[in-house]
Design brief:
The chain is α/β, with parallel strands linked by helices and 349 residues long. The protein contains 13 helices and twelve strands. Among the domains are: 73 residues, no CATH class; 96 residues, no CATH class. Helix 4 packs across helix 5. It is globular. The structure holds iron/sulfur cluster. Iron/sulfur cluster binds next to loops.
Length: 349
């Protein structure tokens, strides 16, 4: 049995619908240690948000069929009662949402909402909870926190609201934080500040972070490990260094090609992935990426269309798993992809 702080094993989240079964997450496994960050990357509909919402127990009360294991410090969260999970949510496991304006109630002050998040898990007076809210606002860099604590969400800038969301997420010192696109709506400078803040807080509290994003640039900045998802499944998994320097799956190549500054060259080509993510109701046969993959003709026979590749170690070995039939992906990446997206890096890597 895994001894990791968080160990997700063969997690499946399926939704029965009138049209059939939607397999939003279909057999996901990963480990995460305290003080480390896992980036889960993929386009919308890849299953990344559903998987992390399930870790928080947000599927409860819905029609979702969930199986597998979510072991947090050895306890399987899927076996807890609703009340036990409610006790843990916000305290042991917390979420930082991507859109603070809709995640915060417009009619209550920022301080009130942060203080309430504290009072749910601590038997303290309103005054003590407000003092704790001021403390957290100060910790996340809100100027004049004792005054701004009484502001309403619309009185905060986008960056300040995101900081306030982080304050709310961390007020109970959770050991696991799920940050869902925490910087997507922010400009580049504020984005960098928020990522720095998250990293500082992580170092201070040894928090494990799951960072959900569509942006491999953010992953490069923040994460230790990365898990690339497509159509509800992991398609590539390993350390950030390994995945960014030796990606072995054409979908990951596509995501990398969409990162504007991978080479630091503003004139480098930006190559969007052709086509759209598949329907999870009726995903393509074989490798779900095959209708969009420009490398499938390099695989013998009709394998890409007919056979789902297993998630297995690639030719470089180590803890680097890929779900692809290509036998020499590193060679193809260096010869065909890297010169297109990062010509300056070709010699370096
Ligand atoms: Fe492309 Fe085939 Fe690899 Fe899928 S298995 S990513 S279709 S080469």
């Amino acid at each position: 049995m895994s001894t990791s702080f968080l160990s997700v094993n063969d997690l499946k989240v399926h939704f029965p619908t009138e049209d059939g079964l939607v397999k939003a997450t279909d057999g996901l496994s990963f480990d995460l240690e305290r003080g480390e960050t896992l980036g889960i990357v993929g386009e919308s509909g890849s299953g990344k948000s559903v998987s992390s919402s399930t870790i928080l127990g947000l599927h409860r009360g819905s029609k979702a069929r969930v199986s597998g294991e979510i072991l947090l410090d050895g306890v399987d969260l899927l076996t807890l009662s609703d009340e036990e999970m409610r006790q843990r949510r916000g305290k042991d496991v917390a979420m930082i949402f991507q859109d603070p304006l809709s995640a915060m109630h417009p009619y209550y002050t920022v301080g009130n909402q942060i203080a309430e998040a504290y009072r749910v898990h601590h038997d303290v007076s309103k005054k003590a909870a407000k003092a704790r809210a001021v403390e957290m606002l100060e910790r996340v860099g809100i100027p004049q926190p004792d005054r701004r604590v009484d502001d309403y969400p619309h009185q905060f800038s986008g960056g300040m609201r995101q900081r306030a969301m982080i304050a709310m997420g961390l007020i109970n010192d959770p050991s696991l934080v799920i940050a869902d696109e925490p910087t997507t709506a922010l400009d580049v400078t504020v984005q960098a500040q928020i990522l720095d803040l998250l990293q500082d807080l992580q170092t201070e509290f040894q928090t494990a972070i799951i960072l959900i994003t569509h942006d491999l640039g953010v992953v490069a900045e923040m994460a230790d490990d990365v898990l690339v998802m497509y159509a509800g499944r992991a398609v590539e998994y390993g350390t950030v260094k390994e995945i960014l320097t030796h990606p072995e799956m054409p979908y990951t190549w596509g995501l990398l090609s969409s990162v504007p500054d991978v080479s630091g060259d503003p004139d480098a080509a930006l190559l969007p992935i052709p086509g759209n993510p598949p329907s999870l109701l009726n995903p393509p046969s074989g490798c779900a990426f095959h209708p969009r993959c420009t490398h499938r003709d390099k695989v013998a026979g009709d394998l890409c269309r007919t056979q789902l590749p297993d998630l297995v170690p690639g030719p470089r070995g180590g803890v680097h798993l890929k779900r692809c039939h290509l036998s020499d992906p590193d060679v193809i990446y260096r010869a065909e992809i890297l010169p297109e997206i990062a010509p300056d890096l070709v010699e370096e890597l």
